[in-house]
Design a protein that fits this description.
By secondary structure, the protein is an alpha/beta fold. It is 36% helix and 16% strand. The chain has one domain: TIM Barrel, CATH 3.20.20. The radius of gyration is 19 Å and the shape is globular.
Length: 330
């Protein structure tokens, strides 16, 4: 029987490139005080994002913060922690389906998602925790400021703070027209500079195959973006490979037959061309709400190519992707 906290708090395994080994990762899904600020201000958010769907587990508990405010976040955090503490996690990853660093004060007019005091409490808990060595959170670039980052870094002490930024593409048209990300290169570079100045690790999300790009164009765009990210101080890249979730703009194109997720061969090509530049993580094809279609090849090779990708995820060794072939689709 599923335990009460398991729908929003659990421990799994994740390869940590800085340690060159697999660590125990505590993943905590929290609702914000409000939905993603960009989703609200842009009337729909990013074209591929399903975080704000009513079917998403990230919104399952939204009613709690609606009625109980920030006290609900503390309750969920500690309830989730006490459920998993015996597993001695080494890393804490928090997803709130938006911007963890948006307290409502960083950007004029934005509705708060996670109160700053809660952000600080989490950092301080990590600082004194006997086994957690790293805290990872996500945000859009504009919520990274010279005011909040130094304080959070001080709160986390000697532990590692890593911030994931949704950059997606180096091309302005792809990022802000096709993906509707609402982020400029200037904002991205400024945010990375702030993180580096304060010795906070920066991770950039790079998106593979937006609607509007061919398979070949998508591969080249991802490779160029990853190169740009490492050239501008990013410590780690996470390659987000497109999959289909209901309720997204991408889903509409998929349903009309004008779009399909990328092939697994495309993912492998991007990794093999960029792995020498720095740590390139390949995201899994699981999320909330559950995807209805994911990257794949032909039925003959999809299974074994996915197995090779899993080996890569657990080692960051691109040689495990060598010698893969298929008589049918490659």
């Amino acid at each position: 029987m599923k335990k009460p906290w398991e729908s929003f708090s659990g421990v799994g395994n994740l390869y940590e490139p800085s340690l060159k080994r697999i660590v125990r990762e505590w993943v905590l899904l929290l609702p914000g005080l409000n939905m993603c600020s960009w989703y609200l201000t842009s009337k729909g958010g990013c074209t591929m994002c399903g975080f704000n769907s009513s079917a998403s587990a990230k919104q399952e508990y939204a009613w709690i913060t609606e009625y109980f405010g920030s006290s609900a976040l503390y309750a969920m955090y500690w309830f989730g922690y006490f459920g998993i503490r015996a597993q001695k996690p080494e890393r804490l990853t928090i997803y709130n389906g938006g911007n963890f660093l948006n307290s409502g004060k960083e950007v004029l007019g934005s509705k708060p998602e996670i109160p700053f005091e809660f952000q600080r409490r989490v950092c301080k808990h990590v600082a004194r925790h006997p086994t957690i060595e790293k805290l990872f959170v996500e945000t859009k670039a504009e919520f990274i400021t010279p005011n909040n980052i130094p304080i959070l870094k001080e709160d986390v002490g000697e532990k590692t703070l890593q911030v994931g930024i949704g950059f997606e593409s180096v091309d302005e048209r792809v990022r802000n027209k096709l993906l509707k990300k609402g982020t400029t290169r200037f904002e991205f570079e400024r945010s990375v500079s702030i993180l580096k100045k304060n010795k906070v690790q920066a991770l950039a999300y790079v998106f593979l195959k937006p609607v509007g790009l061919s398979e070949r164009e998508a591969v080249e765009e991802a490779v160029n973006t990853i190169k740009y990210c490492f050239e501008h101080g990013i410590d780690e890249v996470s390659l987000s490979c497109a999959f289909i979730q209901e309720g997204t703009e991408m889903y509409k194109h998929y349903r009309e037959g004008s779009y399909t997720p990328p092939r697994l061969w495309s993912i492998i090509e991007v990794v093999k061309r960029t792995a020498s530049l720095g740590p390139v993580r390949v995201g899994t094809f699981e999320d909330e709400p559950p995807p209805i279609d994911v990257p794949k090849n032909c039925p003959e090779c999809t299974g074994r190519v996915n197995e090779a990708l899993d080996q890569y995820r657990n080692s960051f060794d691109p040689t495990v992707l060598d010698n893969l072939s298929c008589l049918i689709c490659k």
